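Dock adenosine monophosphate; give full complex structure.
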Amino acid sequence: MNLVFLGPPGAGKGTIAAIAKDAFAIPHISTGDIFRANIKNETELGKLVKEIMASGNLVPDEVTIKMVEGRLGEEDAKKGYILDGFPRTIPQADALSRMSNVDKVINFVLPKEEILKRLSGRRVCKSTGRTYHIIYNPPKVEGIDDETGEPLIQRDDDKEEAILNRLEVYEKSTAPLIEYYKAKGLLVDLDCSGKPEDILEDLKKILL
Ligand code: AMP
């Protein structure tokens, strides 16, 4: 099953993908996570994208497309994938259709006020990427990862100015993909206002 998770930042794509990958036994491919891993490992790609990501702007299409092409060519992606955060522009979607057949595009739907609340309260463990929310999904001890005991941080791009920019970028560059995939008959809306377990059940009903 080849799936694309589409939706604004903060809608819960990463959270649902992390549990859906086990339910469907396919890899979760998050372009944001791959970029963050490159920044952490101080690779050339990491150096190139660091400032762009911190501001909430998009990494250039050619860089992102090449990276995804490489990742989809790996063995585990042959049985299917969940693409989370890609495509984010029409040229990326065109490139994806040349690389692979997408079975369904899940459109994560959440009101804007809720998105803002979710993003500004998000905290992450830098080494594992595990995410929490200060109100909706707090760690056992405030500010500390449950498993590694490391301090939680706020992503640079979850700070207020970057959040507003990311939402603008989403509206301008990514939201047009809703009509793009609707026209191809691939788009299904998923209401993301509930709990992750319930959203996963709704997703299973759509897909299985
Ligand atoms: P995410 O973790 O999906 O919110 O992505 C974090 C950041 O990584 C985005 O704000 C962009 O700077 C960059 N990024 C992730 N995916 C893409 C993409 N498909 N195209 C361009 N930039 C991306």
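Observed: The pocket of adenosine monophosphate is lined by residues 9, 31-32, 35, 52-53, 56-59, 64, 85-86, 88, 92, 157, 166 (CB under 6 Å).
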